[in-house]
Amino acid sequence: MTLGFKTKTDDGKPTLFPEKVLLCLMSEVLIKIVDWNDIMKDSPYGQMAVGTYAPKLHSIREDIRWKPGVMIDFYTGVRTNNAYRFAPRVSVVSVQKIEIIPEPPKPHSLDHPRIYLKKIDKKTGKEALLCFSVRIDNRYQWENEIKKLAKNDGFDTVDEFFEWFGAGYKGRIIHWTSLKY
């Protein structure tokens, strides 16, 4: 199945998702050297600055069709004339449910952890305090786990992660490594 990746955010900043996926596949030895040379000879990702960013270990999607064993076709430019397969096929190792839940800003309670973010409203310029909780396979994640989740999904910060997915998100973490939360 096709797993498409944006190369830029809505405001034009490079995501580096393809580079981070390739870095993961290289570091996990999921790409053989022969395959790597074949992939990179005409690739726009051939001049990667390896070591300047962390690998993308999984992807999060709303699509519920992903199952272990399904082959992943990594693409950019899906549904355009510029569609490009940037990595060899690998199989889905595991899938986990994820929920990003908006919460009322209040002190940490004993029932479950929350994460707080300060955001500036682009229209009004006013600062707002946003509060979220994250559940993976029905288990709430602590702040350090959410930071790790964001990094492993290719984001530099938790703010970027929440900006990308937003509150009220339900989906699946598609793993192509043995990592689990």
Structural class assignment: alpha+beta
By DSSP, the count of extended strands is: 10
Q: Helix tally?
A: 4
Question: How many structural domains in the coordinates?
Answer: 2
Pick out the low-confidence regions.
none
End-to-end Cα distance: 23 Å
Nearest-angstrom radius of gyration? Answer: 17 Å
- The share of residues in extended strands comes to 25-35%
Q: Globular, elongated, flat, extended or rod-shaped: what is the shape? A: globular
Secondary-structure element pattern, one letter each: EHHEEEEEEEEHHE
Give the averaged pLDDT, no decimals: 87
Largest sheet: 6 strands, antiparallel
How much helix, percentage-wise, in residues? 10-25%
Task: Describe this protein with a few key phrases.
single chain, 181 residues, alpha+beta, 2 domains, 6-stranded antiparallel β-sheet, 4-stranded mixed β-sheet, 20% helix, globular
Helix and strand topology:
Blueprint (H helix, E strand, L loop, with lengths): L1 E4 L11 H11 L5 H8 L17 E4 L9 E6 L7 E2 L4 E2 L2 E9 L12 E6 L6 E10 L2 E2 L2 H10 L5 H8 L3 E7 L6
Parallel strand pairs: 1-3
Antiparallel strand pairs: 2-10, 3-4, 3-5, 6-8, 6-10, 7-8, 8-9
Your description of this structure?
The mean pLDDT is 87. It is built from four helices and ten strands; from the N terminus they run E-H-H-E-E-E-E-E-E-E-E-H-H-E. The chain is of the alpha+beta class and 181 residues long. A hairpin with a 7-residue loop joins strand 3 and strand 4. The strands form two sheets. Strands 2, 6, 7, 8, 9 and 10 form a six-stranded antiparallel sheet that branches. Helix content is 20%, strand content 29%. It has two domains: 92 residues, no CATH class; 80 residues, no CATH class.
